[in-house]
Amino acid sequence: MSTTVSANGARPATSGPKVGRAKAGGTRGEAPIKRGRHPDRIIFPIINTTLLGLLSIIMVYPLLNTLAISFNDGLDAVKGGIGIWPRIFSLKNYDVVFHMYTIYQAFFMSVLKTVVIVFTNILFTSMLAYALSRREFLWRKPITLIFVLTMYFDAGLIPNYLLIRDLGMVNTFQAYWVPNIISAFNLIVIRTYMKSIPESLTESAKIDGAGEFRIWWNIIMPLCKSTLAVIALFVAVGSWNGWLDTLLYNSGKQWLSTLQYELQKLLASAMSAGTNSGGMAGASAIAGQGGQVTTPIALRSAITIVAAVPILLVYPFLQKYFVSGLMIGGVKE
């Protein structure tokens, strides 16, 4: 490489190989990066979509099959082979269910029971969770330990019944909601979420003169909306599907009977009638209270659909909170 100096002393441009300019997206002197889809970005979505599709089919098919059998003729349903579409469309199974004179009163009692249990459980569990999430509460660890122990040790069915009897709650509405005021699992979940809320919010509220109850109601509860919605859904499903508490505590009062208990009695009587009639012929001709003829398998499907529809109607309203509520504890603070 050689250089020359001009008469005025200025150094001219250096002759020799030119240094390549940096390409867009790369550094100086490096080769341009070729952008393209990595094989993992193609293979993973395909495998993920396939597995989730198969899982969806496995989960949805039993529901569609039950729905098809419920709308199929009861005598024809005994033959089997029904897929996701009824072979002989019929409403006889639902006629038997809805001709029960107690089903409408039982439906109202189930709705009332579910609403009261959800409201009281969310109210008292969130209050206790707020207290246990505060660092200044000295007894928070022993009390939390006591509630955790109840998740692993249960007295059993007979001691629980004796407790309800001694409290004078047999054949009363209190037997439904009083034992469900506090849930240990829900308490741990809500408390964990409340502990992740910055303490600066509560400290600022205390400086402004807010008390503990006002902080819990106006600050903490709105921030826990997604968590409480998921807990409310779990509690509602458990309360709506429960019929054992009616059998144990309130079977002596007809006005306290719930929808699930009435449908369970109807199914038990249909199964007993089919068994006592003997063989397939007896099981294929059971007359319901409405004078319609059905079979145990068709009646069971209709009862399942009737009991599941209310929860299926409620779920879409809580779906937007479901994902965020399940992510509790997913991010480490």
Please provide a written account of the structure.
The chain is an all-alpha fold and 333 residues long. It folds into 2 domains: 39-77; 92-326, MetI-like fold (Orthogonal Bundle). The protein is built from 15 helices and 2 strands. Strands 1-2 form a two-stranded antiparallel ribbon. A hairpin with a 5-residue loop joins strand 1 (286-287) and strand 2 (293-294). Helix 4 (103-133) crosses helix 8 (184-195) and helix 4 (103-133) crosses helix 13 (259-277). Mean pLDDT is 80; it is low at 1-7, 13-26, 279-284 and 329-333.
At a glance:
By secondary structure, this protein is mostly helical.
User: Which percent bin holds the helix content?
Assistant: 55-70%
CATH 4th-level superfamily of the largest domain = MetI-like
Number of helices: 15
Order of helices and strands: HHHHHHHHHHHHHHEEH
Labels describing this entry:
333 residues; mainly alpha; MetI-like fold; 2 domains; two-stranded antiparallel sheet; 15 helices; 1% strand; disordered C terminus
Task: Set out the fold topology.
Blueprint: H1 39-70, H2 74-77, H3 92-98, H4 103-133, H5 140-149, H6 157-166, H7 174-177, H8 184-195, H9 199-207, H10 212-223, H11 225-241, H12 244-249, H13 259-277, H14 279-283, E1 286-287, E2 293-294, H15 296-326
Antiparallel strand pairs: 1-2
Helix pairs in contact: 1-15, 3-15, 4-8, 4-11, 4-13, 11-15, 13-15
